[in-house]
Amino acid sequence: MTDIGVWTGALGPLTNWPIVPGHETVGDVVELGPDVDNFDIDDRVGGLYHGGQDGACMTCQQGLPQGCHQKVANGVSKHGGCKPIAPPSHLASQNRNHRPRSLLTCRCRGRVRLRPSLPRPQTVAEYCILHTNAAVKIPKDVKPARVAPFLCAGVTVFNSVRHQNIMPGKTVAMHGIDGLGHLAIQYARKMGYRVVAISSGDSKLKLAIELGSHEYIDASRQDPVEALVKLGGAKMIICTAPDAKTIGQYVVALQWQGKLLILALKILPMCPCFPLTSLLVAPA
After folding, report:
1. Which of 114, 191, 199, 280 could form a disulfide with 204 if both were Cys (CB 3.0 to 4.6 A apart)?
2. Which domains are seen in the chain, by residue range?
3. Which string of DSSP letters, residue by residue, matches the chain?
4. pTM (2 decimals)?
């Protein structure tokens, strides 16, 4: 989704054209910056969306580097690990004197340079550079193609769910079985929650059960909010593909002091609207 947003220009000023996209990079270290002491040559490492922070601003000092005022985003504000792309036509005029590069050879302090280890060289950059404070070591017996999604979608839902402090045994509903949703269902099940998956169609029923969902609500056949209320509501509802109307409806299906967790990149304006009385009345 992020790479598509880079290509289409939907991320706007966040994108530093020209750019090599890709923020789920897996590769082997081939060169170290002079200050690197926590990685070695030939280590296999991964690069996330978060590409670095200054460590000095207010949010960094609060232990929230993802909100750094000078944060770096792999594949968005700095070169990532996918195939180089030119700007879309409506942005080309702004960058006509620049061309993206597939080979990044500069040596930078506190960074490592990687050789992507995916099997298709036409789909990844030959080299990319990662900040050491935004790189993670990966076992070499794990296939890069299997671990790459965890570097963005995986860490997004895992950290978001665990930080909500929902007690095991509580009901957690998942709206959407997509790139984020299918991982969130598995995490929630392993964390000991009663998982309710919400999607449309019989095909998603089988997938939801295979992923670990206890219940499945087919939104194409019944009102998902009413169905969730009949199940007793949810202590947390996770939306990975929300819109304002859906969010407003789901609030009434939350249990007392329940949480609505929104995990989606939404380009269009989104303002959840719901009656304030829904915050005072929990599902029976």
Report:
1. 199
2. 2-149 (3.90.180.10), 155-279 (3.40.50.720)
3. -HHHHHHHTTTGGG--SSB---SSEEEEEEEE-TT--S--TT-EEEE-SEEE--S-SHHHHTT-GGG-TT-EEBTTTB--SB--BPPPHHHHGGGTT----S------TTEEEEEE-SS-GGGB-S-EEEEGGGEEE--TTS-HHHHGGGGTHHHHHHHHHHTT-PPTTSEEEEE--STTHHHHHHHHHHTT-EEEEEESSHHHHHHHHHHT-SEEEETTTS-HHHHHHHTT-EEEEEESS--HHHHHHHGGGEEEEEEEEE-----S-------GGGGT----
4. 0.76
